[in-house]
Specification:
By secondary structure, this protein is mainly α. It has 15 helices and 5 strands. The chain folds into 2 domains: 93 residues, DNA polymerase, domain 1; 146 residues, Intergrase catalytic core (hpI Integrase, Chain A, Orthogonal Bundle). A hairpin with a 2-residue loop joins strand 4 and strand 5. Helix 2 crosses helix 4.
């Protein structure tokens, strides 16, 4: 079995059997295509630990640690599939060293910047104002926002049905300000022939279109930088600052593991330490040590 044929079979199963989301399938397709470009279309039996290590070393010079880890995970899923099918004896990625990742705290967007983005969008586009309000007010992933349907909204109850990673569903409350903006957008939206909540002239908005819009609003509002992901982090850190229980935040974000949500605790601790260093008289003189 050659690599290209095996990858095509894996992607087919990913879409039609595992029912992966279009966003997930596209990410696997890109990562595996890049792996194929490096390894060449050789027989699977010719790909071992050494070939995988060479590929990972090349990636380590070019991409961020988190991207390297994602591409390694995609390759491991593929080779595990090939091993289950009996095309190879073992998964060569499991034999290669796992790339070390530095612990990175999530970056949040300042609340003042979010307000500025909303003010600008309120003046120019009810659609964009609704998107910003839902990203920040509900903590949505950008792919979750892009795939929202009209039927996912319950404005009377101020609730939103969200289909997250692994096609897991959750219900999140819609803040009053976000609900007002969504109603304005629905009034302006009209009735295009699609169930998608957020549409443009050519149909539903894509993830990339939404990412570009968010960056543009941050730049125009304050000459700053923001992404949908940072708005999601802001949602979580603001809840944490307000004293909301970490497990409740986990449910709202749709995290499978509490450990992922706990990263926000580290972020808030960092803020507390910075405030201490600025305010405490002994911290300035002795670095906070007695």
């Amino acid at each position: 079995m050659r690599l290209a044929q095996a990858v095509a079979s894996f992607l087919e199963e990913l879409v039609h059997v595992q029912r992966a989301s279009p966003h997930t399938a596209a990410a696997y397709r890109r990562d595996l295509a890049q792996m194929q470009a490096f390894l060449g279309d050789r027989e699977l039996s010719e790909i071992g630990r050494r070939e995988i290590e060479d590929w990972l070393v090349m990636l380590a010079r070019r991409v961020a640690p988190s991207t390297l880890a994602r591409k390694r995970a995609a390759a491991s899923s593929f080779f595990a599939y090939a091993a289950r099918r009996g095309w190879i004896a073992a998964n060569p990625v499991e034999l290669a060293p796992t790339p070390k990742q530095p612990k990175r705290l999530p970056r949040a967007v300042a609340t003042d910047l979010v307000r500025g983005m909303l003010r600008l969008a309120d003046e120019t586009s009810p659609r964009d104002a609704a998107m910003i309000a839902l990203l920040y007010g509900c903590g949505l992933r950008v792919a979750e926002l892009a795939t929202l349907a009209l039927s996912d909204l319950d404005l009377a109850a101020r609730e939103l049905r969200v289909v997250g990673k692994g096609r897991k569903e959750r219900i999140v409350p819609i803040p009053e300000g976000a609900a007002v903006r969504v109603r304005r957008w629905l009034a302006a939206r009209g009735a295009p022939p699609t169930e998608a909540l957020f549409v443009g002239r050519r149909g539903p908005l894509s993830v990339r279109q939404i990412q570009r819009l968010i960056r543009r609003y941050a730049e125009q509002a304050a000459g700053a930088y923001a992404t949908p992901h940072r708005l999601r982090h802001s949602f979580a850190t603001d809840l944490l600052r307000a004293g909301v229980d970490l497990r409740a935040i986990q449910e709202l974000l749709g995290h499978a593991s509490l450990a992922t949500t706990e990263r926000y605790t580290a972020l808030s601790l960092g803020e507390l330490k910075a405030a201490y260093r600025r305010a405490h008289p002994r911290a300035a003189r002795s670095g906070g040590r007695e």
